[in-house]
Amino acid sequence: MKSATTRGVLAALAGTALFTPIFAAGKIADGAYPALALMAMRYTGGLLTVLLILLMTKTTLSSLKSSKPHQHLVRAVLGTGGGVFTIHAASVIPIAYATAIGLIEGLLIIALAGMILKEHITGRHWFAGFVAAGGAYLVVHQSLNGSLDTMTSLEGVVSALLGAVFIALEALLIKTLARRESALGVLLHVNAFGTLITVGLCLILLDWIAWMAPAYFLFILLGPMAIAAQFFNIRAYRLADAATLAPINYSWLIFATLLGIAFFNEIPTLAATMGAGLILLGGIIAARTPTPMQH
Fold this sequence. Notes:
Number of strands: 0
Order of helices and strands: HHHHHHHHHHHHHH
Structural class: mainly alpha
Largest sheet: none
Strand content: under 5%
Radius of gyration: 19 Å
Distance between the termini: 16 Å
Low-confidence stretches: none
Mean pLDDT: 81
């Protein structure tokens, strides 16, 4: 029987795989729609999915009421910021660059988990994080060889960095919320608050009539995909420490590479493949590092 940590790592991998096309939505849309508008569709589709689940399972809204709704609101703000900045970064610079810069969130989570959540951070956790980071460097260096001038796009780089910070902070809130409340309750609150925030901002900041088209509404499918990804992430944080799961986020680069092969004809080199192996090694080391939760 798999340990709780191993099951948590597998759940985190599933969540990361599902989130990859969501964060690449700007590139898939070819810049046709603003990142904020894509996040509005993602949260709206997510909220509709949760409400459908509630209807099918005959679960009442009152049974999912949170004792600390303000924490869900803060998480929705962080999730909105992380999603908007990450999607925008991937739309103005290559996906591999945006992904690589975003991978600093793993090290941020390890550091913040120790400082804020008071989790036990071992040398092996740090070693796993830096092994995975080294693999990420190899993949990015090789896959973007000859396109390094794209780093001059300060807008994309700053967006990716801000996205990493927002996502790292959100991960810590997911950790605390996942242990206290049901997965369905967490999903309901974040998607409800997220819909209100993103749709409200779109109505205030964007000229919807200028770019709204039937194809735009297809991005509402990001919602159900995000719900499945969030479910796996909540499950992961219930089973394993945030510091253990942090290096698993580096698998995002592997999934982004696969997405690039499938849709953008980006073929990885041998060195990039070796880098992906290092990323997996970092995840395995993290998964096999004992934590107080397992004793």
